[in-house]
Amino acid sequence: MKNILVIGSVGQIGSELTMELRNRYGNDHVVAGYRRTKPSPELAESGPLEVIDATDVARINDVVKKYNIDTIYNLAALLSAVAEANPQAAWNVGANGVYNVLEVAREHNCAVFLPSSIGAFGLSTPLDNTPQDTIQRPGTMYGVTKVAGELLSDYYFKRFGVDTRGVRYPGIISNVTLPGGGTTDYAVEIFYEAVKTGKFTCPLPKGTFLDMMYMPDALDAAIDLMEADPDKLIHRNCFNISAMSFDPEIVFNAVKKYYPDFIMDYDVDKVKQGIAESWPNKMDDSAAREEWGWNPKWDLDRMTQDMLKVIKEKHEKGLI
């Protein structure tokens, strides 16, 4: 990777991935592409910045040519709950946008990282130790676009030789970017509310297990996969990756170890509950471990300590 374009650089993953890529490859070699949301001063001032809409293929093409891009990270998407409220827009960004990126990559010989998600699975998928290769019948537009993206990426690799790679992300927990409308967002919000108010109302019911991951591991996965030896990759575009699995009570008790007076109750969101119950409890990520050395570094307790420390510092400074 010499010149990198990140589409969706102000989103939950994109905002931190862009900065990590700049740290590793140099500020001038990583272009932050955004659509509407104003980039942070750090993102805007540390390297090149371009307005890019994943649904505008001509604009993507212009930026790729301008900066001689050889690698594209396409993170543009509407997250699960938001996508259900506007499925037409979700398809346009999550499927048509992927097609546009792949077409530009084909024309300019770019490698492409396209993240998929646990949302690519559905109720007919085995929920425990979900296999790498298994039935995928998602019940959400978000999931449908992720399966479409996986298939399109496989097609462009096999048909045109485009170097496409991707992972199936679990829920991502970050102390930098606030939640953006995902079903797993409660696992971020609970830490903020523990520090700010000492109480939290959970939208998912007790016993709802989901795969989760701390952001530093998510960033490493994206970069490590793109740096991996392509000759060792069998699956390429849809690697299961996981770091931890818990339900609301488990993460509540993890937080309570450090905030003993913290309390949590429930007000179940039926839409989010339905989505969560169709997703894996725990994915089998052995293919990623075997093919490119995936090995997460963060467990629940270590992540909890770090989340609470960072959020407490922000709160004391009046930043949240």
Short description:
The chain has two domains: 4-170 and 213-240, Rossmann fold, CATH 3.40.50.720; 174-211 and 244-279 and 298-316, UDP-galactose 4-epimerase, domain 1 (Alpha-Beta Complex). It has helices at 12-25, 41-46, 57-66, 80-85, 87-108, 141-160, 186-196, 215-227, 248-256, 270-277, 286-292, 300-316, and strands spanning 4-7, 30-34, 49-51, 71-74, 111-113, 116-117, 128-130, 164-165, 167-169, 171-173, 199-202, 210-214, 239-240, 244-246, 263-266, 282-283. With 320 residues, the protein is α/β, with parallel strands linked by helices.
Tell me the layout of helices and strands:
Layout (H helix, E strand, L loop, with lengths): L3 E4 L4 H14 L4 E5 L6 H6 L2 E3 L5 H10 L4 E4 L5 H6 L1 H22 L2 E3 L2 E2 L10 E3 L10 H20 L3 E2 L1 E3 L1 E3 L12 H11 L2 E4 L7 E5 H13 L11 E2 L3 E3 L1 H9 L6 E4 L3 H8 L4 E2 L2 H7 L7 H17 L4
Parallel strand pairs: 1-2, 1-4, 2-3, 4-5, 5-8, 6-9, 7-16, 9-13, 10-12, 11-15
Antiparallel strand pairs: 12-14
Helix pairs in contact: 1-8, 3-5, 5-6, 7-9, 7-12
Essential attributes:
alpha/beta, UDP-galactose 4-epimerase, domain 1, 2 domains, 45% helix, 12 helices, 6-stranded parallel sheet, 16 strands, Rossmann fold, 320 residues, 3-stranded parallel sheet
